[in-house]
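Sequence, structure tokens reproduced for reference:
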Amino acid sequence: MITQMVTVLGVQAHTGGGSFEKLTVSGTPPTTCTDLRVYVAFRSESQANVAITSGDYFEFTEVQLEVGDSATPFEHRSYGDELLRCKRYYEEISGGSDAFTFSAKGQGSTSADATINLTVPLRASPTLNSVNSRAFGDSGTFDASSSTTPTVSQFDANNPVIVINCGGFDALTNNKIVNWGPVSSALEIDAEL
């Protein structure tokens, strides 16, 4: 919900010539600004250089917001590079029929410390969502947990590995190695700002 409108920071008009044009808009938000939103608007025929008719369309490419007093060349990143950058903030491990399991060690009879290998180091210690999970022992049997929220027990900002403590069990053995994994829902590892 918008509670306060902010003054328009800049306007740039397209010539309407039918070809791609680079449009740059610069502006300075007020020092009290806590929420910045970018809108693209289309003017009426009486205000614009050309009429928009049925079948016309607009394409936007290379949109970039940046801090500074002038626009810089567009920074091209590959999908893979962008994905790795995003995974510093969020990673998800699929649940479902024990498809993904991780090495863990019993911590008493009610919890296990599981080692999670991440794609890249996280930017900060993450929060985790509540999941149902299982811990499999060497005999092929398992102990199922109720829906619990694991906690991070070991985190290092330069290391792509975290250790999480998963509770809700009742038949684990202290210091015994098990395979732990989420059962039905994904484990969300969230290090957002």
